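Lab notebook page, bench 4
Experiment: in silico fold of construct C2
Operator: M.H.
Input chain length: 349 residues
Purpose: comparison with the prior construct
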Amino acid sequence: MTMKNRQSVARILLLSVAFLVLCSPALAQHYEYDVQQIWSNGTYSSFTDLIKYKGTFYCAFREGRGHVFDERGKAEGKIRIIASKNGRKWHSVLLVGEDGMDYRDPKLSVTPDGRLMVSIGVSVYVDRKARAQYSYVCFSSDGRHYTKPERCLVDDDHSRRHDWIWRVTWHDGIGYAVDYFTQPEQGCWLLSTTDGIRYTKVCSFDIPDFPNEATVRFLPESGRMAVMVRRDAGNGMGYWATASSPYTQWEWHQMPLRLGGPDFLLLDENHFVACSRCLHIPGHPTTSVYTGDAATGRVSQQFVLPSAGDTSYPGMLVERNELWISYYSCHETEWPSIYLARIPMKCFK
């Protein structure tokens, strides 16, 4: 396939179901949806997020020379943010990083005072071993000019070196995020913030087997918090839970799938749509879309996006009557490129 064809919008028949994750009804129809390659510049582009801010769409991701390390054994990823007025034509507005540091997993949110916030995980490697992991943040008031990334603080602890604030979700003027420790035995915490820089511990999550990447959302009617958590030890299955304010009492449910870079949105009080790396076929990962039960976390796989190899880490938003999903994949290119899928919301009703 030529580069011109790769960058054009592909009209793809959306298959009803590849297979069921649980024995729940799958879609019985075929739908059309769009997939477009929105960034490919010969670098290892990965770990996306997506947001609409002041009428413009922004997609953030890591750029490097490998998933972690380059050909010299160094990890020095940078964060790039691209922008678009219509989701079709994209241009770069930010490329930021530091020598000797690996910037990765950017996550986008809008603060209560109306600024675009970029949460970043920063790692320092020595001889291919991670010696420190920090959480950084930067801000923009116009989507074009950004503050210098600064380090986040949890309970004013300046000595923390091995944790990662992964994705911030704002609700009633307060940002919530899961902070996971890169030393598996330490688990993870739920944090709150009012400024995106200083964070306070809300509670510990009592989850076994190395919980880490997590997304927090809020049920639209009750205001209950829902959380989806990746685990990387034991059977590796994801966990799901909900809690009412003050978000300290949780009922956990093991999900029927492994997660990789999970994101989800609440469709209503009882249902959600999620996207994650799919590992059902060993050695052949894809990026897949699921619908789920907000009470139990039970899901069924609905769609497999065009994807292969190193893939996933979606960003999700609803734009009018479509679900937009950014993700990365190397099914068309030697190194991963960035893609945008647009799926009609009627698929999930």
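Observations: Confidence is low (pLDDT under 50) at residues 1-28. The longest helix spans residues 3-7.
Next step: discuss at group meeting.
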